[in-house]
Write a structure and sequence with these properties.
Helices cover about 70% and strands about 0% of the residues. By secondary structure, it is mainly alpha-helical. It has one domain. Helix 1 packs antiparallel against helix 2 and helix 2 packs antiparallel against helix 3. The longest helix has 26 residues.
Length: about 100
C-alpha cells in the first residue's frame, strides 16, 4: 500500500517548512501556546502515519535521515509517543505559567 504516493515531493518540501514555522512560533513568547499545540498536532499526525505504515504497508518505506535513522519503525513510534507526552506536559506548564 502506497501511503503518500504522488504527494511525496510536496510532503518532502512541506515538512521542513512546517517544522521551521512551528519552531519560530514556540520561540516567540506571545505565539508559544499556538506553537506547542501545533507541535502536538504535527507529532500526532506523524504518529498516525507511522502506525498506519506498520499496520497496512506491504513494504516499509526507507527510514528517516539524521539522528533517528538508526531507529526501527516501531522504535520511532515509541519515540513519537514519548515526545507527545512531553508536548502535553509542556502545554500544561505553559498554561500554568500564563495564569
Amino acid at each position: 500500500m502506497e501511503f503518500i504516493g504522488n504527494f511525496s515531493g510536496q510532503i518532502a518540501i512541506a515538512v521542513p517548512i512546517v517544522e521551521i514555522v512551528i519552531s519560530v512560533l514556540i520561540l516567540v513568547p506571545w505565539t508559544r501556546t499556538i506553537g506547542l499545540w501545533s507541535f502536538l498536532f504535527t507529532m500526532c499526525l506523524f504518529t498516525i502515519y507511522i502506525s498506519a505504515v506498520l499496520i497496512w504497508a506491504n513494504k516499509l518505506p526507507c527510514l528517516c535521515g539524521g539522528v533517528i535513522e538508526t531507529l526501527s519503525w516501531t522504535a520511532h513510534l515509541w519515540l513519537n509517543a514519548v515526545i507527545i507526552v512531553i508536548a502535553v506536559i509542556l502545554i500544561r506548564l505553559d498554561k500554568s505559567l500564563n495564569n
